[in-house]
């Protein structure tokens, strides 16, 4: 599993592209063998620890989008090895153009066959963090063809203020999608090959289609933040919940250096 830690060749043009677009998709980041080795454990734990048992038709739009389990790295040494992988951590730091990155939290996203859309949103709505130096690695554990609901992004939307106060919901899907279309933001979505990984900024608006296939879409995400990130006052209830869950003991105005937020990669 050498690809988990060895550097991935990233060109300066790709860093500039990410800075401009707010996201990037990179091919051949992880090998099929690595994804199988760690993916089986990630999927097993997601199904085992998931607490959503209602039929799809009885759930809200948010809960139809996927089953989700956070911080699997605390549940399994094997998953922890994956989440602390140096290749992904270094890519995150290089794309953010920072000296190092800490873990904010990980999150498994399991879109069941027949699972609904993931409404348009920006992740950082949920995070009480002092800057925009946050990034999510979206790592499919199998190929994601168009009918399985691949993640898509509004190109260059990371600077848009409208919609930053909307959590994932029918309202966010309607209002953000309409605003993006009105201002001419291109929505870029397409299949993911096995081993392809996307990275997007916390304020980049994105969404995913429904899973119209007869197979589950199993994805692991790792959310990184600048290693020097500081905690700020929560702007809403969900940010207060995130603070308590993922940054226990962190103090406002100070670097978020808790036991749950280890440095994953740092230069030198």
UniProtKB/TrEMBL annotation:
Is Oxidoreductase found in the keyword set? yes
Q: Does the keyword Oxidoreductase apply?
A: yes
MF terms from GO for this chain are:
2-oxoglutarate-dependent dioxygenase activity; iron ion binding
Q: Which Gene3D superfamilies match?
A: q2cbj1_9rhob like domain (2.60.120.620)
Q: Which keywords has UniProt assigned to this entry?
A: Dioxygenase, Oxidoreductase
Supply the PANTHER family for this chain.
PHYTANOYL-COA DIOXYGENASE (PTHR20883:SF49), PHYTANOYL-COA DIOXYGENASE DOMAIN CONTAINING 1 (PTHR20883)
According to UniProt, the name of this protein is Phytanoyl-CoA dioxygenase
Q: Which organism is it from?
A: Rubrivivax albus
């Amino acid at each position: 599993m050498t690809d988990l830690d060895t550097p991935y060749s990233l060109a300066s043009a790709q860093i500039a592209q990410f800075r401009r677009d707010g996201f990037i998709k990179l091919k051949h980041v992880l090998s099929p063998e690595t994804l199988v080795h760690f993916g089986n454990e990630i999927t097993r734990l997601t199904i085992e620890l998931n607490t959503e048992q209602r039929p799809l038709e009885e759930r809200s739009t948010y809960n139809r989008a996927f089953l989700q389990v956070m911080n699997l790295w605390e549940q399994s040494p094997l998953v922890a090895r994956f989440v602390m992988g140096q290749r992904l951590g270094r890519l995150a730091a290089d794309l953010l153009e920072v000296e190092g990155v800490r873990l904010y939290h990980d999150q498994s996203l399991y879109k069941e066959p027949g699972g609904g859309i993931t409404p348009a949103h920006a992740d950082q709505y949920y995070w009480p963090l002092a800057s925009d130096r946050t990034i999510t690695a979206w790592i499919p554990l199998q190929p994601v063809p168009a009918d399985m609901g691949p993640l898509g992004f509004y190109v260059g939307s990371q600077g848009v203020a409208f919609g930053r106060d909307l959590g994932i919901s029918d309202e966010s899907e309607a209002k953000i999608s309409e605003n993006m279309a009105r201002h001419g933001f291109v929505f870029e979505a397409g299949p993911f090959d096995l081993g392809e990984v996307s990275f997007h900024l916390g304020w980049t608006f994105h969404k995913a289609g429904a899973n119209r296939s007869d197979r589950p879409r199993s994805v692991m995400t790792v959310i990184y933040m600048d290693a020097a990130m500081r905690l700020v006052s929560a702007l809403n209830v969900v940010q207060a919940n995130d603070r308590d869950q993922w940054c226990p003991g962190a103090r406002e105005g100070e670097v978020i250096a808790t036991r749950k937020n280890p440095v994953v990669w740092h230069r030198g």
